Amino acid sequence: MTEIPRKAVQRTAKLASLPLGVAGRVVGGWGKRLVGHSAEDVSAEMSAKTAEQVFAVLGQLKGGAMKFGQALSVFEAAVPDEMAAPYREALTKLQTAAPPMPAATVHRVLAEQLGSKWMSRFAEFEDKPAASASIGQVHHAVWHDGREVAVKVQYPGADEALLSDLRQLQRFSRVFQALMPGAEVKPLLNELRDRMVEELDYRTEADHQRAFAKAFDGDEHTHVPKVVASAPKVLVAEWAEGIPLASIIRDGTQEQRDLAGGLLAEFHFSAPSRARLLHADPHPGNFMLREDGRLCVLDFGACARLPEGLPRTLGLMTKLALEQRSADLLELLRTEHFIREGTVLHAEDVLRYLGPFVEPLRPERFRFTRRWLQSQAERVGDLRSPDSRTGRSLNLPPQYLLIHRVTLGATGILCQLNAEVAARGIVSRWQPGFAD
Questions:
Q1: Do residue 338 and residue 229 come from a single domain?
Q2: Residues 107 and 233 reside in one and the same domain
Q3: 260 and 394: one domain?
Q4: Is residue 1 situated within a structural domain?
Q5: Is residue 58 located within the same domain as residue 115?
Q6: What are phi and psi of 140, to 5 degrees?
Q7: Nearest to 262 by CA among 248, 281, 277
Q8: How many domains does the chain have?
Q9: Would strands 295-297 and 222-223 be described as parallel, antiparallel, or unpaired?
Q10: Looking at the structure, do residues 173 and 227 belong to the same domain, yes or no?
Q11: Residue 418 located in a structural domain
Q12: Which of 108, 122, 281, 364 is the most buried (most CB within 10 A)?
């Protein structure tokens, strides 16, 4: 493979194979049950094969398809345990792995972006990629001044592929909803579509990374590699090493889990105040735990400008829910357009719906677990429950959608880590409106 398959018909055929493949396995499963196989064994086999196909296709397509798979991967913790096992490994693979570009293609992109004498800018350059991403791959190199650097090279055809994927994935959203019942798939797709086009120009990402690196320069908790050079489809930054959060999720010690979780929460809530930006791509492949105990943050392609920091309204809502001030909470939600005009909602119903979400802020420290997140997904996902009806009556204004998605994604990672975090202190320090 020399570049991303660009033609819409080619990519659509791959994506269309997903629902067809699922349907085929269902029919095959019926056949096996007719000849004596147990329902449990057949269901387990179907789940494993479906997971394998879904994420193999997403990984091969890269572009928007892989990006969508990465975004879904943080919701794995919300899936009930009996369903999650076949998907867990397949999902986490998408966070770090994808088929690599040939060296000749990499060299061609580097020549186009850095000039025909691009090799003179490096003392060394490794053709084998060190890591992959949704629209690019990363190579280890040594800059001409001796600094170790990471060189991110965008896949040729990423722009066309990305837009094509997002159009096609919206057609198949019901398939992904079935795989990830804890995720709101359609809003996620719409929001990803709006944000991902920005990621195609690495100069924008470089500007974001410079802002984060400046804001966190010398920070005791967070490390952001400095940008060395950038072009529209190539980004060179200082090399960074550490234990990927995906590895800690898989087999890390409890000490590592708690440390990584606390650092991630601190970064998520502090960045908007410090950098005036929100890092909007929360999945474990973008974070590492360094040897010095700091969190290393990578990939700044998806960022949102928050010149005023996190909205004060969110802090007030959280405080009112925590203090069980249902009437004040209902009034705030109406004022800030979280409730559509003409919608009848009762204050106690709204509090009963939102209250469990602020549970992590009641004690000094809270253990984030898959079981806790699963219980929240089950509670709001059961169409027969009063909480589900209340949730469907609430409205999320567009300006809050990205913040909501990123916070939910970060929470998903904390639950994957099974981390105990001093969440209340972090939110109290960094979320405007909460400590008022």
A1: no
A2: yes
A3: yes
A4: no
A5: no
A6: -85, 140
A7: 248
A8: 3
A9: parallel
A10: no
A11: yes
A12: 281
Is the domain of 153 the same as that of 163? Answer: no
Query: pLDDT tens, position by position, for the chain (436 residues)?
Result: 445 454 444 545 554 444 444 333 333 333 333 334 444 443 444 344 545 555 555 545 444 455 555 555 545 555 555 545 544 555 455 444 456 788 999 999 999 999 999 999 999 999 999 987 667 899 999 999 999 999 999 988 777 766 666 666 666 555 555 444 444 556 656 666 666 677 788 999 999 999 999 999 999 999 999 999 999 999 999 999 999 999 999 999 999 999 999 999 999 999 999 999 999 888 888 999 999 999 999 999 889 899 999 999 999 999 999 999 999 999 999 999 898 788 889 999 999 999 999 999 999 999 999 999 888 888 877 778 888 888 878 887 878 878 988 898 899 999 999 999 999 999 999 999 998 8
Question: What span, in angstroms and rounded, lies between the C-alpha atoms of 339 and 8?
Answer: 39
**Structural domain of 223:** 103-158+198-238
User: Which CATH number covers residue 203?
Assistant: 3.30.200.20
SS (HEC) of the chain: CCCCCCCHHHHHHHHHHHHHHHHHHHHHHHHHHHCCCCHHHHHHHHHHHHHHHHHHHHHHHCHHHHHHHHHHHHHHHHCCHHHHHHHHHHHHHHCCCCCCCCHHHHHHHHHHHHCCCHHHHEEEECCCCCEECCCEEEEEEEECCCCEEEEEEECCCHHHHHHHHHHHHHHCHHHHHHHCCCCCHHHHHHHHHHHHHHHHCHHHHHHHHHHHHHHCCCCCCEECCCEEEEECCEEEEECCCCEEHHHHHHHCCHHHHHHHHHHHHHHHHHHHHHCCEEECCCCHHHEEECCCCCEEECCCCCEEECCCCCCHHHHHHHHHHHCCCHHHHHHHHHHCCCECCCCCCCHHHHHHHHHHHHHHHCCCCEECCHHHHHHHHHHHHCCCCHHHHHHHHECCCHHHHHHHHHHHHHHHHHHHHCCEECHHHHHHHHCCCCCC
